[in-house]
Amino acid sequence: MNSLRRPSLAPGGGISRRRIPLSDDLHAKRTDGKVGKMKDSIVHEVRKARARLFAKAGHDLATLVKQLQKRQAVSKRRVIKLPHRHTAAA
Predict the structure, then answer these.
(1) Is 22 exposed, middle or buried (0-12, 13-18, 19+ CB in 10 A)?
(2) DSSP-derived 3-state class of residue 17
(3) Overall average pLDDT of the 25-48 stretch
(4) CA gap 4, 22 in Å, rounded
(5) CB 9 within 8 A of CB 1
(6) Which of 2, 5, 44, 73 has a CA that sits 20 to 30 A from residue 14's CA?
């Protein structure tokens, strides 16, 4: 695990001493100790499509949402709305 610490704001305004996980904590390490991230062609394709749609919307999230809602409205595909999931209080 990476031993670097990032400061975070604690409720009292101080800096927490708790270790915050870094992105390399999420991926398996290779035998040489380096982080080995998996390359997935489907993930790459989805990210490329997302970037293309976002660029078409002028990198504006509200515009992107409107464009996608218009696209959904004229689509012949059935949209399934699931009920909200309630999480248990901790």
Answers:
(1) middle
(2) coil
(3) 73
(4) 8
(5) no
(6) 2
- Write b or e for each residue in 52-79: b if 16 or more Cβ atoms lie within 10 A of its Cβ, otherwise e: eeeeebeeeeeebeeeeeeeeeeeeeee
CA dist 68 → 47, 55, 57, 80 (Å): 16, 13, 10, 16
Q: What is the pTM assigned to this prediction?
A: 0.46
Distance between CA atoms of residues 6 and 9, nearest Å = 10
Q: At 56, which amino acid appears?
A: K
Asked if the model's pLDDT at residue 31 lies above 70, the reply is no
Cβ atoms of 37 and 45 closer than 8 Å: no
